[in-house]
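Long-time lurker. I teach an intro course on protein structure, and each term I like to show students one example going from raw sequence to a predicted 3D structure in C-alpha cell notation. This year I'd like something fresh instead of my usual example. Would anyone be willing to generate the C-alpha cells for the chain below so I can use it in lecture? Attribution to the forum is fine with me.
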Amino acid sequence: MGRRNPNGYGCVTKLSGHRSRPWMVKVTVYDQEGKAKQTPVGYAATEADANILLAQYNNNPWDIHRETVTLVMLYNRWLEVKAPKLSDSNRSSLKSAFNHLTKYYGMKYRSIKSFHMQDAIDGCGKGYSTQAAIKNLWGHLDRFAFELNIIERMYSQLTTAPPIPDTNRQPFTLEEIDTLWKDSKDEWTQTVLIFLYTGFRLNELLIMKKEQVDLKKWTFTGGIKTRNGKDRIVPIHERIRPFVQSRMQTNSTYVFELDGKKVTPTKYYEQWKTVMERSGIDHTPHECRHTFETLLDNAGGNRKCIDLLMGHKSKDTGNRVYNHKTLDQLRETIALLK
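-- Reply from a regular --
Happy to contribute to a lecture. Here you go:
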C-alpha cells in the first residue's frame, strides 16, 4: 500500500489512454463561494516526476502557475505563513475582513486591481473600523503576493478608507461612580464597578477564568490584544474584593457567568443597558477603561505603573526599557482610586 498524503496536500493519478504525460497532479483549490475542489495543476511523464511536481507545489505553489493563483489560494497561504506572526486581535480583525471579499474569492489575484479592492471597501456596508480592516487586509495580501512574485505592483496602496473619527469617550464622573456604589448590591452593577477599578477591556474580563484570580495575593492575571497587554497583573482594589470573592465561591469556570455559561458581549450589553438606565447614567463599557486611566493620572499615579496596569507600551524609552515596577508599586497605584 502506498503512502497516504495528508489532507489538503493533493494527489497524483494516472489518466487512461496513450499519452506522453499520463500522470496528472491535482491539488485542492476554492471556487468563488470558497468551496473546496480538486483541480489539475500539472502533468508528468512518470509517477515519480508527478510526485516531485506535487511536492514542489506544496513547498511553494506560486513558482509553478502564478497566473492561476486566486484570492482564496493566496489568502489561505497567507494564513499559514504570515498570519501567525500577528497579534490575536489583528489576525481576528483581518480574518473577519476576508468575509467581505466573497465577490472576488475565485478571481485570479494578478487580475485584481485597485478598483476591485476599493469596491470591497466601499461596498461592505459597515463602519469605518471594518472598512479600515479590509484595506489593511488588501495591504497584507499585496505585500505577500509581491514577495512571492505573483504581482509587480501593489494596487492596495491606491485604496482609501474613511479616517477613524476623534474619540468622544467621556470618563465617568465621581458622582456617577458614587451612584453605582449606592446600587452595589446588584450583581451586574458590581461588574461595572469591577471594570472601573481594574481598567480591563470588555472581552478581557468576560473571558477571564477563576484560575486567573489569586485571592492570596489579590490579583488578576489576564489581558489580550498586544504583547504588553497579555498576561498583565492587576491588583484587586480593596473596595471590589467582596464582589470578586463572592464570584470565586461559586462552581462557575469564569469570573462572569450568566445561567452557568460564559457571558457573551451581546448578553453583557443587555445587562449593562439595564444598569445604566436604572442609574440614570449613559456610558459604554470601554469608558470604564478610559475612566480608570484618567482617575489614576489625575491622582498623580506613576506613568510606568499606569501603562503596566493598562497593558500599554510606555512611550518613553527609559521607562520602557529600564523601569521595572514591583507588585507593591502597582498596588500603591491602584490604591489611588479612592
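Some talking points for your students: Confidence is low (pLDDT under 50) at residues 317-323. The longest helix spans residues 128-147.
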